[in-house]
């Protein structure tokens, strides 16, 4: 379990990320979140994408990795694609930071480069994430590509302050309406796969 004094840094490469404990301990009473260890990675980035593999080198892992590499290669440099190292001894802890029960899963995080973003530090910036963990979705390249494109639109055209306010007040209908305004009829193409949208502090709502 993470405690308010637990602090972590990101290490490794985009192909094999890991969590490393910091040597110093913080007196800050606010809990440490993924925003703290990712904040520096989000500079000049619009969308930061993470893949947590199954740890068994299953066919789904190869499918997702290939599709995400293609996704990164065919979007601007403001879309960052990264993979978590399954050998990381803090792998389960990393999953918990993003409110994930088990791998495989894909997480997209809002970057500080978004025009609508107001960067004021890891604790106050209105960062949010969208995660996909549905097994049928991850196995279906066409549907996954569509879901990623829809989610990317939410980040690119949405307002982080609005979505953060909806999440803090747990207004599910407000989030659904907000996404509907961005995607129109394509909203249901995203929601059918039950994405989870959340804040760094663990507040989240599963949609669909």
Structure description:
With 208 residues, this protein is α+β, with helices and mostly antiparallel strands. The chain has one domain (8-202): Glutaredoxin. It is built from eight helices and eight strands. It has helices spanning 34-38, 59-73, 91-97, 135-139, 141-157, 160-168, 172-183, 187-191; strands spanning 8-13, 16-21, 47-52, 79-83, 105-110, 129-132, 196-198, 204-206. The mean pLDDT is 93.
In short:
The chain is α+β, with helices and mostly antiparallel strands.
What features would you highlight for this structure?
single chain, 208 residues, alpha+beta, Glutaredoxin, six-stranded mixed beta sheet, two-stranded antiparallel sheet, 8 helices, 8 strands, globular
């Amino acid at each position: 379990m993470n405690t308010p004094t637990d602090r972590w840094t990101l290490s490794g490469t985009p192909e094999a990320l890991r969590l490393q404990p910091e040597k110093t301990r913080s007196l800050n009473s606010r809990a440490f979140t993924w925003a703290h260890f990712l904040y520096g990675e989000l500079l000049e980035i619009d969308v930061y994408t993470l893949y947590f593999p199954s740890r068994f080198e299953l066919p789904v892992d190869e499918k997702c990795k290939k599709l995400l590499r293609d996704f990164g290669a065919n979007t601007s440099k403001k879309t960052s694609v990264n993979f978590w190292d399954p050998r990381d001894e803090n792998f389960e802890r990393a999953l918990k930071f993003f409110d994930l029960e088990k791998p495989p899963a894909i997480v997209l995080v809002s970057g500080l480069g978004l025009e609508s973003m107001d960067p004021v530090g890891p604790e106050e910036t209105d960062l949010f994430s969208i995660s996909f963990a549905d097994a049928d979705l991850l196995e279906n390249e066409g549907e996954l590509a569509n879901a990623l494109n829809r989610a990317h639109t939410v980040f690119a055209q949405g307002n982080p302050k609005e979505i953060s306010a909806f999440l803090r007040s747990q207004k599910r209908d407000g989030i659904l309406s907000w996404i509907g305004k961005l995607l129109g009829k394509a909203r249901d193409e995203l929601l059918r796969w039950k994405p989870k949208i959340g804040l760094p502090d663990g507040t989240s709502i599963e949609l669909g």
